[in-house]
Design a protein that fits this description.
Helix content is 27%, strand content 24%. With 99 residues, it is of the alpha+beta class. Strands 1, 2, 3, 4 and 5 form a five-stranded mixed β-sheet that branches.
Length: 99
């Protein structure tokens, strides 16, 4: 299953969460949001400004897309929220991390 950011709608910050639309298998658009907690704790955002959150999203895009692909079969009406429980406990680049 391929999952990528939909070209027509870049990631944006809404209420402290990065929202994006993923194109799944080249045909299905699904909306997701990633919490600021994930972006700070897991992807190293240095703050919670829009620019800092989007930059952390871009740095973690591969892992975020992988988590989105696993979550796309979640039965929802609308947006799928990705929170800290959806990502590994280890923070990339920190001691003890495998990445």
């Amino acid at each position: 299953m391929s999952t990528e950011i939909a070209n027509q709608k870049p990631p944006t910050v809404v209420n402290g969460m990065v929202r994006f639309t993923a194109l799944v298998d080249g045909r299905v658009n699904q909306e997701f949001e990633v919490s600021s907690d994930v972006l700070v704790e897991h992807f190293g955002a240095t703050g919670r400004s829009d620019d800092e959150l989007v930059e952390a999203f871009r740095k973690g895009k591969a892992e975020i897309m992988a988590v989105a692909a696993r979550s796309v079969s979640t039965p929802v009406n609308g947006m799928i929220a990705l929170g800290t429980g959806d990502f590994s406990e280890l923070t990339p680049g920190k001691p003890g991390s495998s990445s």
